[in-house]
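Progress note, sequence design subtask.
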């Protein structure tokens, strides 16, 4: 248990038991006619004595929660702990009574213990219920986090073969027409796969690293399209340190080339832009190709995007929830642009 959480529990326990003691003191004073000073001393101290026990019971309950496969042993364990807490409370009350005056006439210790065994286990199991609620809430959050991470890895795994098969198809088209070019593409593909495998366990990388990976893909496409493809970058220096989803730009660039530049016989330009806008990182991939009006319906629908763009949308939703935007639209002057807005941060998401 972290020190910060421990102090948090001390503070909450102290506030709760102090307020409960004050409420009990007020009732004792008004109903039983006991002087305010005596009611305050006895009631407040009796409740505050629960503070250290609460700070012990809560982590104990988190360490040994009720679980279906161990419920018998856990019930026995907590029954024993409830008896132990009752004995501790009885001993403290009995020892301090001469100075505090909880009883008009001091009883025998066994009488105090009997009273403690009647009431204290109820408080113990109430605190234990709080601990179990915290435990299962943490387990639920952990399960949700693991599920989201598994879904992200699954989407990422789908993305890899998607661009790999497209790249292999491009290489096969050049094998006989341009053997030297196909060799260069294979070499770049090897570098690209090595780069993606190095970052396979990370969901986010710096934009600078992401651009290096995209450049390997662009080198492959540069061999395929020769002089028909021009790539421009408009990247603000501050944006390079921001963390982005790994392989977030590659499907956008692939979409621009496959559906914007490739269908046209004219040379085309793909532009990558990135800048910071307050708490957001704005990313843009733009082409001056055929535009949405000449692309398949799957690309120009309401949500937009082929398989690569769909996977990108799903990954962004998993990583950022509603804290992102993705827009596919006609670019001014012709062509298509995809715009992303994600949180700007220089550390990976938790």
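Output:
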């Amino acid at each position: 248990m972290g020190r910060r959480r421990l102090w948090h529990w001390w503070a909450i326990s102290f506030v709760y038991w102090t307020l409960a003691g004050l409420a009990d003191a007020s009732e004792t004073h008004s109903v039983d006619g006991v002087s305010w000073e005596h009611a305050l001393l006895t009631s407040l101290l009796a409740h505050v004595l629960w503070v250290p026990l609460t700070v012990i019971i809560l982590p104990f309950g988190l360490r040994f929660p009720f679980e279906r496969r161990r419920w018998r042993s856990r019930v026995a364990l907590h029954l024993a702990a409830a008896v132990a807490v009752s004995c501790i409370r009885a001993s403290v009350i009995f020892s301090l009574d001469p100075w505090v005056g909880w009883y008009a006439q001091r009883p025998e210790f066994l009488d105090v213990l009997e009273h403690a065994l009647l009431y204290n286990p109820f408080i113990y199991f109430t605190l234990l219920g709080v601990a179990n609620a915290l435990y299962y809430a943490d387990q639920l959050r952990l399960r949700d986090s693991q599920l989201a991470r598994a879904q992200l890895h699954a989407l990422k795994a789908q993305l890899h073969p998607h661009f790999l098969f497209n790249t292999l198809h491009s290489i096969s088209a050049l094998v006989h027409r341009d053997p030297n070019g196909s060799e260069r593409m294979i070499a770049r593909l090897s570098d690209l796969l090595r780069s993606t495998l190095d970052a396979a366990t990370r969901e986010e990388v710096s934009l600078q690293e992401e651009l290096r990976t995209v450049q390997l893909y662009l080198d492959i496409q540069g061999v395929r399209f020769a002089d028909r493809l021009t790539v421009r970058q408009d990247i603000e220096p501050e944006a390079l340190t921001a963390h982005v989803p790994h392989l977030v730009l590659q499907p956008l660039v692939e979409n621009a080339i496959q559906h914007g530049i490739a269908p046209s016989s004219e040379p085309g330009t793909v532009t990558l832009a990135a800048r910071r806008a307050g708490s957001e990182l704005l990313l843009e991939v733009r082409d001056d190709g055929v535009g949405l009006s000449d692309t398949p319906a799957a690309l120009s629908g309401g949500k937009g995007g082929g398989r690569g763009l769909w996977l990108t949308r799903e990954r962004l939703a998993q990583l950022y929830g509603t804290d992102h935007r993705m827009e596919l639209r006609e670019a001014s002057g012709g062509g298509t642009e995809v715009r992303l807005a994600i949180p700007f941060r220089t550390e990976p998401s938790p």
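The two ends are 19 Å apart (CA to CA). Work on this subtask will continue into the next period as scheduled.
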